[in-house]
Queue: 2 jobs
Job 1
Amino acid sequence: MKLEAKNITFGYKKSKTILNDVNLTITESERVALSAPSGFGKTTFCQILAGYEKPWSGQILLDGKPLPKKGYSPVQMIWQHPERAVDPAIRIGDTLAQCPDLDPAVIKGLGIEKDWYQRFPGELSGGEIQRFCIAAALGKETRFLIADEISTMLDLITQSQIWHFLLSETKKRRIGMAFVSHSSDLTDRIATKIVAMEKE
Amino acid sequence: MNDVRTIPVLQTAKKSRFSLRKKTILSLCFTASFLIIITIVGVLCSDTAVTTDFTQKNFAPSIEHLFGTDWLGRDMLARTLRGLSISIFIGLGASTVSAVIALILGTMAATLGNKVDTVITWLVDLLMGIPHLLLLILISFALGKGTFGVIVAVALSHWPGLTRVLRGEILQIKEEDYVKIAQKMGQSRCKIAIKHIFPHIFPQFIVGLILLFPHAILHEASITFLGFGLPPEQPGIGNILSESMSYLSMGMWWLAVFPGIALLITVILFDSVGSNLRKLIDPFSAQD
């Protein structure tokens, strides 16, 4: 399987183009690191890859076909700010329940404890919420994972625990990955390919 | 720099016996039950309110008649209570209809695209631009006055404010990350609306509904006072006040003062119920 971004052009305002004719291909065994300084549109590109934003021109293709509009998306994104990625008004267990066919091994591997399920996001730390977000993005149908600075709010031990798990899980299930990280150690350790975004 | 000390940390904060939340709940229960009692007593004394007794004309307030009696010997306390209960019923009907209109139009404006949004926003602006009282009189008069006319008039003129609030709220939630993520998790639009959007606008809706009450009651009283509302045989507060006008110059101050104060207190109580309820169910202040 491969995920292709073909000739992506995008901007939030008509007057300012952020991404101009970007091409990228990720195959199922690849872990691509996107690297660029702040404000270069890494997050925007991630959102386009996962189908959250519609590009002005160009296409995102999964095995030559556009991303499905309905159902659990095979391209899942994990967001940078876990607090904003979960509904503050419902229990975190209900948020996780939105993901169909969740493997119990995923929950165990991420170190999620049972009594967290009954809590509201306000009663959990950012790192704890992020584990739920990662779990929800790792449903059975996930083929590609887009990780946008998912570990910036975590302490080093938790960071390594989560990345170890993600690494073994994506290898085992042959999930392709694109990730953004500002830590060069992490990038060197995880990535099979590094894509640097530069000014034209 | 190896001098590391550990400090014991309190894992659970001590709770005071009367938290602010408990106080709010208490005062909410108190005001709400007071209003319910007024309504029930008002319904029970609907006969006393219209019984005339010419041996007891024009009595000033006393132990027997706390609010005095009027020129036909009717007990003003009974009339005031009856008037309040009528006002509360009309307020209930009108503000519920109004809030439902606001919910429907607000949801439509936020979800059905630009054209619908423009039309509804224009309508809201239009209705907000016309003075309330004028609109109330026009609608009530066109419907032949009476209870029905008053309810429809109040209901049709009070929805714009809440519509605007709900529309804004829904538009904001629609753009939240977690709503977009839920879509990618394969949740249907309907499920998202029920699970993610409705719980967020529900507090606004309920509080908006209750805060419409005082408006509705005051406006009901004012158009009745001006003669475009309830029929004169109904002891609405507006009627009581307008009838008392001709007797004020004779020194019968109690005819206007007590019903007026009672109306004021009712309105204030409803207002406090609304703001207390907001404190309780608004996620941003619920933990106080």
Note: Chain B is about 70% helix and 0% strand.
Job 2
Amino acid sequence: MEILDKLINVALIAATLRTTAPILLVALGGSFTTKAGIFNIGLEGQMLVGAFFAVLGSIWTGSALAGVACGVAAALVFALVFAVLVVSFKANEVVVGLALNILAGGMTISLMKAIFGTRGSIVGHGIVGLPKVQLPGARDLLGSWAPLISGFTPLVYAAFIAVPLLVVCYNRTRLGLYIRVVGEKPEAAEALGISITRVRYIASLLCGLLAGLAGAHLSLGYITMFTENMSSGRGFMAVAILIFSNGDPLKVLAGCLLFGFADAFSLRLQTFGYPSYLVLTVPYVVALIALFALSYRARPRIIAETLESMRKLLSVDRNTEPGGKNPQ
Amino acid sequence: MKDHLHAVSGQVIAIGVALLMGAIIILMVGESPVRVFMTLLRGAFGDQEKIAGTLLQTTPILICGVAACIGLRGGMFNVGIEGQLFLGGFAAAWVGFAMPLPAGIHTLAALALAVVAGAAWVAIPAYFRARYNTNEVVSTILSNYVAVLLTSYFTIFLFKRPGGWSETPPILATSYLPEIFAFSRLNWGLVIGLVLAVGVALVFRYTRWGYGVTMVGSAPKFAEYGGVNVKRQGFLVLLLSGAVGGLAGGVETLGVHHRFMEGFAPGFGFDGLIAALLANGSPVATIFTALFFGALRNGSLLLEVDTSASREIITVIQALIILSVSAQVLVRKRGDSQAGERRWKF
């Protein structure tokens, strides 16, 4: 019991929120492309360049905010390339996404070597991290539970605030509606005169924006350094979440909290002397199990849908047959 | 034939564009593109040892490329070759150091276990892909991370060489893949790769099973009406692809490193996938694209020594090649249909 107490406490929940934030930001970004009907495996790379250029911008300007802007700008460039190739040139989205991920990995390492002359990681060099926001009154209100709402870097708050914003966007705004129509029924969108290309570009760029924020949070908020491939699969976990949440912001939040918890828990287990290599697999294993379990659960629905569409097809056939080709 | 020529010329133009963009990036990191490309060329083909080194690097890329081709033909993206390679490599090393067997049989047993390990590692994603349509791209990517960490755990916590650092004991000499020349570590693994590429190409071309796989990949509905069990076929395709990925790891262990260590063969799985994509899923064409990437990789070793650029610049060039190849739709004729194409085709 004592061990359990040590493992699960306020600090762990606060850590969960901290580890959830980057994956939540990037998954919410991917929610736009998912809803618009694009399978975006390139989240990982957008996040990575976001993290790298955030550090670069922060060093050059001495301002964390400018760093975040740099990170977002870099991720937007990647998102734009993705959109040009996938939306305009109709290239295969998996191939383009994977290639952009590889490009991001190679480019950040090459630039790191060129600019800092080192391999591995950038520490120091005057990186300005994001400040921690202490909410006034949190301590009076919650006492020892105050770390749950106070003392995070700004992008943690941004991540959680973005969830209701996205819900509103999808349900109450014209853009959100357009994105959903383009994703679910492109023919209907075309018939309504909505430009599929334009909507998909907007969705891709919104995705890049949030992925860039996620990257900036990794290197300026979560910790204040950049290391090779520091996104370490978070983008792919986000894609896993997007597959089984279908991009719905609230389900995305639930999935991200699960992975954030797995992440925080594995960090915590390490401090208790469990072999770090095994413990580090925990988030990935959780993601895989969730992916498999939820696709298993989705199975009856697929069958029901198939049956329904077959029935529709058959009834349409029956209706058209007598009047059409087979007049007796 | 004309179609072939058209396809190849398109690929060549794309590579040219990519090299041009690569040159711009090299300028950005403060190096001379001419110097970098010349160094790459010298590092890849400078003398007979360099050429042997290039072929040595080509071997795992080729085998991984064949693994990717098998998946792509059947409409499956096996992005988990990297993980299968790591597990295969470890499995072969384990047979190599833990099971004394007569020479020859030892090598075969080690390769066999590597194949089994690779197939076993992809079995769960393959099962869920075939049965419940779980996206195999994501599940195989995520399983890569687990594979790398798991083999590191085996190496460091269970089978560490006493006094060594994050590596297993060396394998017994009876399990080595013999070397071809005295001056290089180049070994019979390359021959295995070449035979495998040609063999797989022949299977796809001349057997009923191979035709069925290609049909499932390019027109699953048609294949289903034609009586192919699409689900079982998909499962088998991924399993086979994983088995070949495991073999790549086994060859790398038995032929090159003679032990398993942390950070073993980084990136060969992805290089193989890219080589297969560039070859448009043809195992024979993969021989040439793998050679190209092997040359880049071997050349990049000299790059690190002779210039200030990092060797990852070749990863950038590879990614640019794939991007510009995928953008080729721009130059494709308008009349070309998009509908009946394989889903991985550029």
Note: The beta strands of chain A are 121-122, 226-227.
